[in-house]
Amino acid sequence: ESLEGYWDDGIPVGPFESCEMGTGNTFRSVRVAYCTARAAWACLPDAELGDKLRYGVACFECSIAGSFYASFPRVEWLDPEGESVQDVLPMLLHLDENQPSTSIIVTATPEGLYIADHQPESDASRDSAVIRVHRDVDTTANGSRGIMGEEAVIGSLPDINAVVGDTDLILDSMGVPLPSPHLTQLSIDGWRTRTAPEAVVFLHGYNIPLEWSMKKFAQLIAAGRFPSFIKPFVFSWPTGKVFSYFCALDATKNERTIADFTEFVISLRDAGIRKLHFLTHSMGVRVLCSVLESAELRKVFRVAANRATSTPQAGPVDLMDIRTITLCNPDYSLKEFRDRHYRIMHRLCHHINIYVDKLDNALWYSEIFTRSKSLGRLNRPLYAGISGARCLDVDVVDSSGLQDNMHTVRHSAFNVNRVMVRDIYEIIVEGKRAHQRVGRLARKRGNFFTFMNTPSAVTGSIV
To answer: Three-state secondary structure along the chain?
Structure first.
């Protein structure tokens, strides 16, 4: 097995990436942070709650290519737990820290150019991008050279080593790998590499414990190879178990859940994070809708930028920007979202994505229980009203045609289906709207898109 990453006393601890010789099975270990008030997973949500919020980090080794092991993702909890985001943020190490830019994706938006992994030095920079190639860049001046061979001791981190391959390993003062010497790099005049941390907050559905929700999210982060400035967090709310559906509905909007989430977001802000991405699955959308109704929490966020301007609305510098909101198989009333919560979300974020599946059996049961049409089973554009005269400013993506990695319930494939994983990556990292993801999506009508995929029954002998 060839392994590159972090070690502790001879044991790989993550982040790391490994590949089995012969089989080619590939694994990637990522670190994911969590915030929760849950003390245990119980039948009823109220029985799960502890005295206060807990913060921590865990390593998850995930299969990403070749054979997928049934026992993966495999978790290793890191000590100690913390009392705030500031305590755990330094623990979110990334395998690709300080790596050079070798490819650049430029996207045209109404606000100007958007360049993945980069940010403009001024508003004027949004109108142009001059890309320069730097060949044979010697990076050895940025850090001390590691030992060439199988292993190199990392400076200030005791008992932790990093495997290197056929090239030297360059380390900064904190023991983080720097770019290897003599590389070809790219730079953009008037732009700098994005290094400021951006948090992706995952809100899971009901009937799931903390560890399972983190495994689900970690698989997405590992398979998607999200860059180092993306900091993954799970906010785990008390869900109860399978027979507590209606109790879980109440838990999504009770005062304790809203207060805990508000405290968590403020802790993100106090740790220096100013840009947020929300990713929800199933009933997690109800938690997000409930907390965004809180006037106290809305004070933390900046009103979304006007699409006709290149700068966000003025306000205190410590306000946070919600960059994207992605709803996967949302378990929520279509009418309630359209008539009420859309306006609240859109005031704070102009990049809202909704993955729907008309064949989602879990949401079919939800429609029976709640006696309302589910947003997650939408099979047409999302209009502003029943007249259908105007589409809402959201991207609705139909996953009904996808067949790979789909459970028979068709309720949870966003973290394992490669097409969806890459689509979510382009939403969060590259800021692309659905009409810009042209190699993967086709517009059916209005704001309703579908994946361009070939049915599994179609083979080369047919076409």
So the answer is: CEEEEEEECCEEEEEEEEECCCCCCEEEEEEEEEEEEECCCCCCHHHHEEEEEEEEEEEEEEEEECCCCCCCCEEEECCCCECCHHHHHHHCCCCCCCCCCCCCCEEEECCEEEECCEEECCHHHHHCCCEEEEEEECCHHHCEECCCCCCEECCCCCCEEECCCCCCCEECCCCCEECCCCEEEEEECCEEECCCCEEEEEECCCCCCHHHHHHHHHHHHHHHCCCCCEEEEEEECCCCCCCCHHHHHHHCCCHHHHHHHHHHHHHHHHCCCCEEEEEEECCHHHHHHHHHCCHHHHCCECCCCCCCCCCCCCCCCCCEEEEEEEEECCCCEHHHHHHHHHHHHHHHCCCEEEEECCCCHHHHHHHHHHCCCEHHHCCCCCECCCCCCCECCCEEEECCCCCCCCCCCCCCCCCCCHHHHHHHHHHHCCCCCHHHCCCCEEEEECCEEEECCCCCCCCCCCC
Tell me which residue has tokens 């006696």: 371
Here the tokens at position 391 are 């589409």
Specify the pLDDT at position 463: 66
139, 144, 149, 152 alpha-carbon torsion, rounded to 10°: -130
Per residue in 227-258, pLDDT (tens digit) is: 999 999 999 999 999 999 999 999 999 999 99
Q: Is the pLDDT of residue 420 over 60?
A: yes
Quick: pLDDT tens for 370-397: 999 999 999 999 999 877 789 999 999 9
Query: Mind listing the pLDDT tens digit for each residue in 149-207?
Result: 333 333 333 333 333 333 445 555 445 555 555 567 888 888 888 788 999 999 999 99
> How far from chain centre, in Å, is Cα 432?
14
Cβ neighbours for 135, distance < 8 A, ≥ 6 positions apart: 184
Q: Which two tokens stand for residue 90?
A: 């330094």
d(CA 96, CA 16): 10
Buried b / exposed e over 37-55, threshold 16 CB at 10 Å, is bbeebbeebeebbeeebbb
List C-alpha distances in Å: 271 to 176, 198, 267, 397, 435.
20, 11, 6, 34, 35
List C-alpha distances in Å: 225 to 95, 104, 220, 451. 10, 16, 8, 21
Residue 309's pLDDT is 41
